[in-house]
């Protein structure tokens, strides 16, 4: 009931006020006579300055307007006319095309003053400001269905549109980061954006808002609340180099009375307060308003209930929104919505934390697939549009997203289709969650898995190789034992025959005649050949014995090596004894240079010979033409180590082959009977002697191998 009484009272009061307001035609403000006393110094300054040049906003009604005839009209124009008239100071307008040009000309020093603007830290860089001479509150303008705004902090994610270059933009962005602020070139576009729903609200001065809504017919817009502490405090800005002009203008500003200011405002907003009341009009108006009040009262009560319900629902929605934003922040997620073409129509503020973008960067400007790497776009577009057109729910779809700074992250997308009233697809809305850390952990785990599998494979191969080597060693030991027995008989009998041969030859010579033949050969020739055969038998037996000895060395591979003093040069000669025939068969150029002094050290002669023999045999296998050479050197390195250097001019090896040549069973001669054990065993034997093998090779040019051995002990 109390609320109804208040409604009636205010309707009656408004009726009285309305009928006492009569529209009048704007009048030209007469240039007043000078009434302000200036000091001698101030008059001299003005005389030296000359006519004051002034910059204005050429189109900012009802404050300022510069007509095609360069006539300056509006609230600011009338107030400045009073100020300058009472000071007795002449001024002229410097015309500009728009507010942006006005600021640019002012910053470049193109005029003494800026007529009508708020003071900001940015503008203080080139302007000194006078006292305030007009105050106008800033209010929120929304569509009619929007709730009254009591707390701007509840406007999370709301889009607020402003003209470019306004003084409140910087402060709003600082004080209310929860609001998405966009700018447009003109004042008229600001109201168009709100009216068309492109933005939820704007913040404009009350005078400008009221005038614009009335003049342009924005009747579906309303004033939805005032932003406290954001009043427009209009001043005159003076270039720093003309600072004395500030105090002069302040004297003129001080002469303005509130009544004068209100009269000027009323004149330019189409309303003026009359000094004499037409009481007949009052009675008639009250009679009409009384009828309207009864109807309005009932409607007001109904509206109050609706507003209370709307406020409760809005509060609940805001609370749910806050909870959602908090959860999104904690989970590094952002909500989004796209239209049927994939263009962003909404993005939550959390996109700044996840992707580094502002919502304004994406909404209406970017398609969702433009945020994916170029190489991923075909697959992402195909999947997303297929889900959209089939009206299916997307669940945990992993894809990559390019952040604003260029970093590529992984996100997990989930969403649902949005349909219109006819059931047709209108878009898609969902959530993108940053899962980069999880994906990196998965990639690391996969790499560890692959590395472990490779290690197991390598170890298995090594175990198999070791088993094969052990089997070959056992076979070699058995073969050596079996071969050694008959060879011993051959050597023993051959030596007996060799020692007895002179006596045998003498006996045969005494019994044979010149024409006698033995075995189909003349006796003399037979005797020579028989002696040579005995020598060959002994030589062959010794070679078999040496081979058996090497087999026994191979069989002992891996066991403790018994060391004794040897000469490296003798080890080379021993190896050449077994392969010289092979070298002679593959090349016409074998160059052997041994160190002139014995290279004595503690080692195993059999092991050294085996390593050198293997290097020489590999050099033979590498040659493709008898004109290619093989060389062998022995010497002492810079660090005092002994070395054997074997080089060939054969086919050479690439890096990939060099990395594998010491692996067991790796061979480039598989089709020629190679087993891949030679260099593997040689490398291990060199290590058992305290030495090492070093390889250098160039494809098509040849290979060099150093067999390094430790310096003699003691």
From TrEMBL:
<feature type="domain" description="PAC">
    <location>
        <begin position="395"/>
        <end position="447"/>
    </location>
</feature>
<feature type="domain" description="PAS">
    <location>
        <begin position="320"/>
        <end position="391"/>
    </location>
</feature>
<dbReference type="InterPro" id="IPR003594">
    <property type="entry name" value="HATPase_dom"/>
</dbReference>
<protein>
    <recommendedName>
        <fullName>histidine kinase</fullName>
        <ecNumber>2.7.13.3</ecNumber>
    </recommendedName>
</protein>
<dbReference type="InterPro" id="IPR000700">
    <property type="entry name" value="PAS-assoc_C"/>
</dbReference>
<dbReference type="InterPro" id="IPR001610">
    <property type="entry name" value="PAC"/>
</dbReference>
<dbReference type="Pfam" id="PF02518">
    <property type="entry name" value="HATPase_c"/>
</dbReference>
<dbReference type="InterPro" id="IPR036890">
    <property type="entry name" value="HATPase_C_sf"/>
</dbReference>
<dbReference type="Pfam" id="PF00512">
    <property type="entry name" value="HisKA"/>
</dbReference>
<keyword id="KW-0597">Phosphoprotein</keyword>
<dbReference type="InterPro" id="IPR013655">
    <property type="entry name" value="PAS_fold_3"/>
</dbReference>
<dbReference type="InterPro" id="IPR000014">
    <property type="entry name" value="PAS"/>
</dbReference>
<dbReference type="InterPro" id="IPR035965">
    <property type="entry name" value="PAS-like_dom_sf"/>
</dbReference>
<dbReference type="Pfam" id="PF08447">
    <property type="entry name" value="PAS_3"/>
</dbReference>
<dbReference type="InterPro" id="IPR036097">
    <property type="entry name" value="HisK_dim/P_sf"/>
</dbReference>
<dbReference type="GO" id="GO:0000155">
    <property type="term" value="F:phosphorelay sensor kinase activity"/>
</dbReference>
<dbReference type="InterPro" id="IPR005467">
    <property type="entry name" value="His_kinase_dom"/>
</dbReference>
<dbReference type="Pfam" id="PF00497">
    <property type="entry name" value="SBP_bac_3"/>
</dbReference>
<feature type="domain" description="Histidine kinase">
    <location>
        <begin position="478"/>
        <end position="713"/>
    </location>
</feature>
<dbReference type="InterPro" id="IPR004358">
    <property type="entry name" value="Sig_transdc_His_kin-like_C"/>
</dbReference>
<dbReference type="InterPro" id="IPR003661">
    <property type="entry name" value="HisK_dim/P_dom"/>
</dbReference>
<dbReference type="InterPro" id="IPR001638">
    <property type="entry name" value="Solute-binding_3/MltF_N"/>
</dbReference>
């Amino acid at each position: 009931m109390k609320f109804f009484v208040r409604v009636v009272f205010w309707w009656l009061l408004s009726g009285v006020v309305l009928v006492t307001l009569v529209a009048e035609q704007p009048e030209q403000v007469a240039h007043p006579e000078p009434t302000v006393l200036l000091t001698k110094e101030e008059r001299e300054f003005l005389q030296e300055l000359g006519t004051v040049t002034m910059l204005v906003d050429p189109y900012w009604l009802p404050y300022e307007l510069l007509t095609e005839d360069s006539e300056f009209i509006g609230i600011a124009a009338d107030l400045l006319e009073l100020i300058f008239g009472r000071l007795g100071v002449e001024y002229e307008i410097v015309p500009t095309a728009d507010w942006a040009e006005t600021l640019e000309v002012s910053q470049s020093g193109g005029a003494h003053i800026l007529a009508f603007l708020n003071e900001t830290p940015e503008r203080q860089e080139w302007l000194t400001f006078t006292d305030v001479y007009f105050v106008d509150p800033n209010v929120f303008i929304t569509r009619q269905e929007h709730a009254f705004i009591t707390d701007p902090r509840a406007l999370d994610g709301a889009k607020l549109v402003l003209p470019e270059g306004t003084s409140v933009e910087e402060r709003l962005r600082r004080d209310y980061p929860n609001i998405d602020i966009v700018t447009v070139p003109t004042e008229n576009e600001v109201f168009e954006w709100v009216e068309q729903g492109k933005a939820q609200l704007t913040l404009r001065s009350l005078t400008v808002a009221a005038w614009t809504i009335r003049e342009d017919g924005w009747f579906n817009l309303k004033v939805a609340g005032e932003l406290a502490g954001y009043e427009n405090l209009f001043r005159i800005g003076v270039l720093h180099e003309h600072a004395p002009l500030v105090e002069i203008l302040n004297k003129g500003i001080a002469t303005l009375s509130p009544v004068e200011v209100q009269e000027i405002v009323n004149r330019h907003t189409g309303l003026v307060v009359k000094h004499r009341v037409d009481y007949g009009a009052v009675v008639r108006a009250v009679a009409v308003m009384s009828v309207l009040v009864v109807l309005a009262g009932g409607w007001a009560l109904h509206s109050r209930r609706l507003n209370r319900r709307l406020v409760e629902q809005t509060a609940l929605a805001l609370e749910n929104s806050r909870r959602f934003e908090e959860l999104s922040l904690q989970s590094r997620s952002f909500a989004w919505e796209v239209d049927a073409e994939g263009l962003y129509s909404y993005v939550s503020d959390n996109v700044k934390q996840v992707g580094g973008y502002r919502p304004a960067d994406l909404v209406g400007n970017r398609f969702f697939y433009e945020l994916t790497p170029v190489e991923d776009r075909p697959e992402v577009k195909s999947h997303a549009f297929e889900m959209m057109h089939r009206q299916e729910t997307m669940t945990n779809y992993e894809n990559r997203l390019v952040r604003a700074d260029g970093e590529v992250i992984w996100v997990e997308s989930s969403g649902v289709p949005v349909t219109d009233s006819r059931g047709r697809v209108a878009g898609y809305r969902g959530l993108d969650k940053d899962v980069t850390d999880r994906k990196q952990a998965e990639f690391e785990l996969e790499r560890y898995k692959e590395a472990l599998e490779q290690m197991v494979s390598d170890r298995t191969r090594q175990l198999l190789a070791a088993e094969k080597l052990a089997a070959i060693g056992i076979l070699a030991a058995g073969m050596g034992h079996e071969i050694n027995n008959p060879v011993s008989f051959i050597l023993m009998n051959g030596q007996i025959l060799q020692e007895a041969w002179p006596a045998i030859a003498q006996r045969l010579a005494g019994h044979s005649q010149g024409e006698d033949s033995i075995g189909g050969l003349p006796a003399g020739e037979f005797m020579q050949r028989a002696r040579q055969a005995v020598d060959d038998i002994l030589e062959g037996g010794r070679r078999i014995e040496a081979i058996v000895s090497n087999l026994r060395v191979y069989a002992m591979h891996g066991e403790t090596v018994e060391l004794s003093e040897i000469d490296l040069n003798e080890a080379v000669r021993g190896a050449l004894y077994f392969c010289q025939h092979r070298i002679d068969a593959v090349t016409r150029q074998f160059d052997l240079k041994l160190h002139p002094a014995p290279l004595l050290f503690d080692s195993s002669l059999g092991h050294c010979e085996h390593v050198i023999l293997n290097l020489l045999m590999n050099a033979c296998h590498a040659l493709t033409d008898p004109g290619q050479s093989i060389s062998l050197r022995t010497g002492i390195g810079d660090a005092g180590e002994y070395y054997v250097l074997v080089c060939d001019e054969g086919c050479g090896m690439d890096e990939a082959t060099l990395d594998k040549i010491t692996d067991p069973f790796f061979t480039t001669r598989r089709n020629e009977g190679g087993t891949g054990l030679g260099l593997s065993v040689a490398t291990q034997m060199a290590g058992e002697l305290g030495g090492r093998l070093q390889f250098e090779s160039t494809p098509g040019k040849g290979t060099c191998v150093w067999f390094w051995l430790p310096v003699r002990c003691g």
